[in-house]
Amino acid sequence: MNIKTQLKKVFTIIGWSLLGCAGMGLLVAAINAKNSSLCQGLVVEINAGGKALCLNKKEVIAMLQNEGLNDVRNKKAASFDLLKMETFLRKNSWVKDVQLFFDNNQILKIRIQERQPAARLFTVTGTSYLIDSNGVQLFLPPGAVLNLPVFTGYPHEKFELKRDSALNRQILNLAIFLNHDPFWSSQIQEVDIHATKTFMMTPLIGNQVIEFGDGNDYENKFHRLYVFYKEVMTQTGFDKYTSIKLAYANQIVATRKPGVISKADSIQARKNVMEMIRLAEKMETDTGKIRDVKPLERNTLTEQNLQGFDLPEENENKADTNNKHQKQQQN
Predict the structure, then answer these.
(1) For 206-234, what is each residue's pLDDT tens digit?
(2) Residue 76 DSSP symbol
(3) All domains in the chain, ordered by first residue
């Protein structure tokens, strides 16, 4: 390698070094200038400008004021501890994510993403709170009206996935399913948690109790129940049954109610459910939802896939027994 080549390499390295130092100097100067500039205002943005469920701008500002942040105008940007402010705001259970920064106009921006509640839980002691889809416990906002699945009889004062993880995971799965299914979100009014950690559901239409069993295989259970609604109960009436049991694999066991059922009430109940089914199917078509279950309209009730869905009344059982005894005596 000759001297000219070596000198060229040296000068190239020196040139790039000087250029890097100059760029670093400009960057430091820009940072210092920005830090020494004065704050021109404060903007709070919640849920990217969408609907806020719990927090609002006044509450966020009040929370920061309690930490010593009063009037932000004409204060140096360097005087704001943005990391500390973010850490403080994250202590609020409704805050899923938060970002604080100064824009080019020296406006302090606070961007907050709220947690989305998935269900409301009532404990055995009567207390109530919300949980999101990740199992984070949220306090109930005063005066808030939220259309969420309701679970009653929860055995603990706090919701933690580490505690009773099987039960809590089943509650979350059911809550998420109900929130995303237009038919069942309308039909299921309440889910009661039994002492055996099984679920009893109260429907909006019909007086029967839905004995769901545990939360395992929940999609197939709702699927079988939907088919039963559509193929059987829309024909027989929704006041004919006192209970529907889904705890058994691939079965539905329904118990008939003794006595006479009002024809007018039965017809109206059928109309109501058929309208719910129509709206639910339309909503799924409009939103393009695709679930990993077979299309409901293609399923039919057979003795192979649904057994014992229409048990006889208690009086009928007695009558059948008496007839058998009479026949035996005659023989």
Answers:
(1) 888 999 999 999 999 999 999 888 888 87
(2) B
(3) 41-114 (3.10.20.310), 116-180 (no CATH), 182-331 (no CATH)
